[in-house]
Structure formats: structure tokens, C-alpha cells
């Protein structure tokens, strides 16, 4: 298994970086899923076509990381059905994630597409890189969070402005769980049991998805269906 890179929790000095670590904790942990945001297209199991980034180059690197905080599932995804993944950096726990080395422009374009907007411009990252957090709007993925830096480049992600306990939790769909779990597994830092147990323990998934059912999805069910007897 790959060694887990350590995130330096101090904020980077460069407030205008050309490249950043876009840190995904949801379905974009999977490179095939991320490719729809970058190159455009519709990933298997999704109900939406994506326009892609202005720069269609795939990440120069993708590394496994762990964030301080908690992952939970909430709201209702029009793309997947079921709950979406959100990150609460203020909660106790750890979040398995995958950091993709992209340009700051690509990060802006991915964030725009998460809000069903066309990618047309860059983001001002000065506030999030100065304070560690920046609320761009009240949308579900319009709060930027900087977890620190790796190799001198900022570790950035986006999430909702609310906290984990401020909204009802919603169980994620099989297709969504499959992409998220398979993406984490392919990062090479965690084995099937660790990924399955982690996903099944997250609020929203807990009580609906068992570790065995998540592991079954990772075993290659081609349609992303829950196995017989699963949650």
C-alpha cells in the first residue's frame, strides 16, 4: 500500500498559486468520474452531462490524503439519486480523500460544475488561503476550505456552509457509493475492508449501508446494484 502523504496544516504563503491540490472526498475520488468534470461527458450511472473544464488536461498527480473532520451524506442528488457527500472540517474524526494536482482554473471550473454552472472564470482564492475558509454563497458546494499544504501547494476542497448536524442525513445511492469507494480504493493507501468500513460508518450511510454491502460493490457488480440482502 502507498504511504499516506502528510498534510502540513499551516496555510501556504503564495496567495495566487498556479496549481493546487483539489481534494475530493466524494465521487470525484474516482478518476473516471473526475474526467467528466475535466474533459466533459457523462459518467456511468450519472444523470447529467458535464461541459468539462476550459483546460481538459487530467491531474498531473493524484495522492491519497486524510483530512481532519467528518464525511456525511445529505440533500438529494439529481445526478445520482440519494444523498451527496459533504465534509465538515469542524467535526471530530478523519476523512479519507484523494488530492488531485490541477490548475487553479480547473479547480474553479470543477466548483462551478458542482453548482450546475458553466465554467467561465477563475476564483479569488486569497481569502481561503489567508483564513482557511471562504463562503462564496449559500449553495451546497460554495464554501471553500484549505486544509493546509502538500509540497508547498494548497490543499483545497469545497463543501456546504452548514455543519453535519444542521441538516437531515440522506442515504447515498449504490452508484454513488461505488464511485466514491472505488476511487478511495484505487488511491492505494487503504484496502477493501478499510474503505468499506469507513464509508458504511459515515452519517447518512450508517444503518443503510453495511461494510459487507459496500465491499460487494467493490467486488465488481457492473450495474452498481446493491447485492441481495444488502441495505
TrEMBL record:
Give the Gene3D superfamilies listed for this entry. Answer: Gamma-glutamyl cyclotransferase-like (3.10.490.10)
Would you tell me the protein name for this molecule? Histone deacetylase
This protein's species is: Streptomyces nogalater
What is the organism lineage in this UniProt record?
Answer: Bacteria, Bacillati, Actinomycetota, Actinomycetes, Kitasatosporales
Amino acid at each position: 500500500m502507498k504511504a499516506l502523504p502528510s498534510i502540513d496544516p499551516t496555510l501556504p504563503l503564495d496567495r495566487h498559486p498556479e496549481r493546487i491540490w483539489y481534494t475530493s472526498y466524494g465521487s470525484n475520488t474516482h478518476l473516471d468520474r473526475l474526467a467528466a468534470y475535466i474533459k466533459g461527458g457523462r459518467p456511468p450511472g450519472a444523470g447529467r452531462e458535464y461541459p468539462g473544464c476550459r483546460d481538459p488536461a487530467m491531474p498531473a498527480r493524484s495522492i491519497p490524503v486524510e483530512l481532519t473532520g467528518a464525511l456525511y451524506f445529505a440533500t438529494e442528488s439529481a445526478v445520482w439519486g440519494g444523498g451527496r457527500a459533504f465534509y465538515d472540517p469542524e467535526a471530530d474524526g478523519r476523512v479519507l480523500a484523494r488530492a488531485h494536482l490541477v490548475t487553479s482554473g480547473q479547480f474553479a471550473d470543477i466548483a462551478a460544475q458542482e453548482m450546475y454552472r458553466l465554467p467561465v472564470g477563475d476564483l479569488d482564492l486569497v481569502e481561503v488561503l489567508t483564513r482557511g475558509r471562504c463562503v462564496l454563497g449559500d449553495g451546497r458546494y460554495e464554501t471553500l476550505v484549505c486544509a493546509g499544504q502538500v509540497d508547498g501547494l494548497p490543499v483545497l476542497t469545497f463543501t456546504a456552509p452548514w455543519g453535519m448536524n444542521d441538516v437531515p442525513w440522506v442515504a447515498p445511492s449504490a452508484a454513488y457509493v461505488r464511485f466514491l469507494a472505488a476511487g478511495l480504493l484505487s488511491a492505494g493507501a487503504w484496502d477493501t475492508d478499510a474503505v468499506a468500513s469507513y464509508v458504511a460508518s459515515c452519517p447518512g450511510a450508517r444503518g443503510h449501508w453495511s461494510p459487507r454491502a459496500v465491499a460487494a460493490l467493490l467486488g465488481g457488480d457492473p450495474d452498481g446494484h446493491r447485492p441481495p440482502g444488502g441495505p
